Amino acid sequence: MLVQLEIVHIAVIAAVVLVILSVLIGFVFKRKSSKTTILILGTADAGKTQLYTRLRFGKKTATVTSMKENEGPLTLENKTFDLVDMPGHERVRFRYVDYLPVTRSIVFVVDSTTVARQIRVVGEYLYNVLAQQQVQKDRIPILIACNKTDLITALPQDKIQQRLEIEINRLRSTRTAAVEQQEASLDDEQEAYLGYEGEEFKFDHLDNDVQFETCSVEKDELDKVVDWIVHN
Ligand SMILES: Nc1nc2c(ncn2[C@@H]2O[C@H](COP(=O)(O)OP(=O)(O)OP(=O)(O)O)[C@@H](O)[C@H]2O)c(=O)[nH]1
Ligand SMILES: [Mg+2]
To answer: pTM for this one?
Structure first.
């Protein structure tokens, strides 16, 4: 009798665990497959529109500074995505937040030849992206595509990563100080803290998967970018 009761107990626990597991697995898969938008972000002149046209139409076209988004379907290895090229102009670049609820992954394009000079503006934009509640909550994967490697003035990928980490570290301390000064209330709108408190900022410290790769839209060296999009 006692043994029978124990068996019933175990069976009930096993059933509950199974139900919870299947709900969790279903939730994870559904979340991943239902979102198809790939956001191309980055400051002006990084090469976003060139990347967009190369990926979608397989060719280069002359581009001018974008003031509105380009959007359309992109099929890679039998998967169809919705590709969005956001303008890098400072007045419109923050509109990307409207797309976050449907965003599957973000390709953040950096001009490797000017990133050192523009580290403030690039770092600030990237910080804004990484600190978005939705980006953190959904753990949206981010690729930092270090573009224009065909030019000899291009900074190597590891140096770009280092410079961005230093810049984000600097921004983090000034922002935290500002928040403390204002004694801001802890509402939902507040930016999330990036990385570990008391430690220098490293991309590795984030819950999101942040990867760095080099590319050249000009020379059609986009294998690593395409591969990343397909697998994220
Ligand atoms: N050498 C070189 N030039 C590139 C490469 N990719 C883009 N460019 C050039 O960079 C310039 C800017 O490219 P766009 O694609 O228009 O830049 P964008 O990021 O869309 O800029 P905004 O629309 O202003 O935000 C163009 O003159 C491109 O030809 C590259 O891989 N190598
Ligand atoms: Mg553009």
So the answer is: 0.86
What number does the ligand 1 atom closest to the CA of 63 have?
Answer: 16
Tell me yes or no: is domain 35-231 CATH 3.40.50.300. Answer: yes
DSSP 113-140: TTTTTTHHHHHHHHHHHHT-HHHHHTT-
The residue behind tokens 């523009």 is 118
Residue 65 to residue 72: CA distance in whole angstroms: 19
Q: Is the CB of 42 under 6 A from ligand 1?
A: yes
Nearest of 22, 51, 25, 57 to residue 38 by alpha carbon: 51
Domain residue spans of the chain: 1-34, 35-231
pLDDT digits (tens, 9 = 90+) for 128-158: 999 999 999 999 999 999 999 999 999 999 9
Question: Could you tell me the distance, in angstroms and rounded to a whole number, from the CA of residue 191 to the centre of ligand 2?
Answer: 27
For the CA of 60, the nearest atom of ligand 1: 29
